Q: What sequence folds into this?
């Protein structure tokens, strides 16, 4: 029904109360939103609940979205980031630290290897999970969600140069974490 | 830190295309002569490739009904906090149907039934070849006008639309000859969609997550269509796709997710690439034997004494050994044995009898496809049991009749189209495996 219709046009329909159009928006973006929260170290139940809350807020704030203002995904992920901040406050979760269990790679077992192996291979996903929140959210938006630096700077409300430096520091830190260079 | 090259800070912007062309060229020239930047570049490129290749973790179920229900005031955030998604998902479907009524609109997603009424299908008709007929009917009915399957509509990740559409075409093309004619137009449209997505460099996909999966599966699909339909216009695109696979083989002999030289190879993608080359070999496309040889030599290097290939290195099984072993056995069974350095024992690779298989309940569509085909072509008790379990799970609900719920490890990536295509291919095995064997003779 909405084949070929872009998100901006769909949001126009949503503003008019079209719930079929809103369902289409949800289906287009639900995987990326849940993935975003998972990469921010939410467990699956929490990630789904946060994604649902994000969509509810998107509906509540549909009148504020302007196609001339920014890309739709910028608007959506700005909401998602605020939902995550609220969730961290609600659960009093430390945003800067993560337990070893939480840092296990998503979607599979931690590739710890056996104790005999020379040098335990740390998984790249675990290294991402161990990054401080500010660095992790830049990497998640950039690499996992495929956004460009400009869009990330708008979502995180930081200058473009800061996105660039956070990406560099994040990768330097992961590289060090994985035993490459220092 | 004091002696770090100041230009190293540009490495990520360079790798992610965030520089102007002129700055990018300047950085590339610098990195070629600066040891620090060269090392950074290689390490970060590999890290980037690995992170991009990490699977997207989507929701376990379509979220639209639950969100719409909440907006309609039929559920509350407090209930959601009580893991309503996990515990009461079935209730959400019913609630969504009510919400749809309240809001006065119907669901647009065929993957989620708006009601739980079952179609009046006689038990006897959901057996044997009827199950295949219903499955391919569902696939045909849900093909888009341009020939693809919009996997996002059915709970899958659109980034894999090419590969999953290719699997659906294989299922339609692989059904028994008398039925195949019925779907000839669907197969033609599906092949046209794949051709429309081929770049001038021969690749069937843009630089997305899992590019090489899409590319290799599309190549296998087109070779099968070429073999069955004798469609000569496919020959050059296939040759170009194969050249792309040859070009993206990494120096050690394997392939990575993106087909880039800086990647770490892995057996999951490489076994699809090898499959495409084996199919090409069988169909008389010449010039790929050295690529196959080095690919299988690489594979042997990361295999254990039972021949089970690790994911990135020997004994590396982050998702278990069964599926990778079955994929290897599949390649050995269909033309790969002659490239193996030592004789291969597929029985040892697959395990024995009823113990064989990563999912005895018949839900790991991906792994079971390779296991079914790598075993004896005539099937046998294990296969018959699997076929029964699959047909028992085939949907009989209105709108979903003949399809399968993607309730397996990879369902969140592939969705209903993936599950249905693989299930149909598994059930087509008694006809299709002997045909594949003849192809590779």
A:
């Amino acid at each position: 029904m909405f084949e070929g219709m872009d998100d901006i046009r769909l949001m126009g329909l949503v503003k008019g109360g079209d719930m079929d159009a809103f369902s289409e928006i949800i289906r287009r973006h639900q995987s990326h939103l849940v993935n975003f929260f998972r990469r921010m170290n939410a467990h699956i139940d929490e990630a789904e609940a946060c994604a649902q809350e994000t969509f509810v807020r998107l509906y509540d704030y549909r009148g504020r979205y302007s196609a001339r203002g920014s890309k739709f995904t910028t608007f959506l992920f700005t909401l998602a980031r605020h939902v995550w901040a609220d969730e961290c406050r609600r659960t009093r979760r430390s945003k800067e630290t993560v337990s070893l269990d939480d840092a296990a790679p998503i979607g599979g077992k931690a590739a710890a290897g056996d104790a005999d192996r020379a040098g335990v291979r740390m998984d790249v996903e675990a290294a991402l999970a161990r990054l401080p929140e500010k660095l992790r959210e830049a990497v998640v938006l950039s690499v996992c969600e495929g956004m460009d630096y400009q869009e990330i700077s708008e979502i995180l409300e930081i200058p473009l140069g800061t996105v660039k430096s956070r990406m560099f520091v994040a990768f330097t830190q992961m590289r060090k974490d994985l035993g490459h260079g220092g | 830190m004091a002696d770090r090259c100041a230009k190293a800070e540009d490495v990520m912007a360079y790798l992610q295309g965030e520089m102007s062309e002129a700055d990018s060229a300047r950085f590339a020239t610098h990195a070629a002569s600066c040891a620090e930047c060269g090392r950074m570049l290689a390490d970060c490129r590999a890290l980037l490739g690995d992170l991009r290749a990490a699977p997207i973790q989507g929701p376990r179920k379509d979220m639209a009904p639950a969100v719409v229900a909440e907006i309609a005031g039929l559920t509350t955030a407090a209930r959601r906090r009580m893991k309503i998604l996990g515990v009461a998902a079935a209730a959400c479907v019913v609630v969504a149907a009510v919400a749809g009524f309240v809001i006065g609109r119907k669901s647009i997603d065929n993957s989620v039934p708006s009601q739980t009424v079952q179609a009046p299908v006689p038990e006897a008709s959901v057996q044997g070849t009827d199950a295949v007929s219903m499955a391919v009917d569902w696939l045909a009915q849900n093909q888009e006008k341009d020939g693809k399957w919009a996997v996002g509509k059915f709970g899958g990740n659109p980034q894999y639309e090419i590969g999953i559409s290719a699997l659906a075409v294989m299922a339609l093309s692989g059904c028994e000859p008398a039925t195949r004619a019925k779907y000839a137009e669907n197969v033609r449209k599906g092949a046209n969609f794949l051709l429309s997505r081929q770049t001038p460099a021969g690749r069937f996909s843009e630089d997305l997550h899992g590019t090489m999966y899409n590319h290799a599966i599309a190549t296998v699909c087109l070779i099968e269509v070429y073999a069955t339909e004798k469609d000569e216009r496919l020959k050059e695109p296939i040759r170009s796709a194969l050249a792309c696979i040859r070009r993206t083989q990494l120096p050690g002999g394997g392939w990575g997710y993106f087909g880039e030289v800086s990647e770490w190879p892995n057996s999951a993608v490489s076994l699809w690439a090898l499959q495409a080359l084996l199919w090409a070999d069988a169909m008389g496309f010449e010039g790929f034997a050295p690529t196959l040889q080095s690919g299988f030599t690489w594979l042997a290097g990361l295999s254990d004494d039972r021949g089970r290939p690790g994911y990135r290195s020997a004994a590396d099984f982050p998702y278990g050994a069964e599926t990778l072993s079955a994929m290897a056995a599949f390649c050995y069974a269909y033309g790969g044995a002659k490239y193996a350095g030592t004789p291969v024992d597929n029985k040892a690779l697959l395990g024995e009898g009823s113990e064989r298989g990563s999912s005895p309940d018949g839900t790991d569509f991906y792994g079971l496809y390779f296991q079914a085909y790598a075993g004896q072509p005539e099937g046998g008790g294990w296969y018959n049991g699997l076929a029964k379990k699959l047909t028992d799970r085939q949907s009989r609900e209105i709108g979903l009749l003949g399809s399968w719920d993607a309730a397996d490890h990879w369902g969140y990536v592939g969705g209903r189209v993936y599950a249905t295509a693989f299930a149909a291919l598994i059930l087509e095995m008694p006809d299709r495996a002997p045909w594949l064997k003849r192809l590779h003779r």
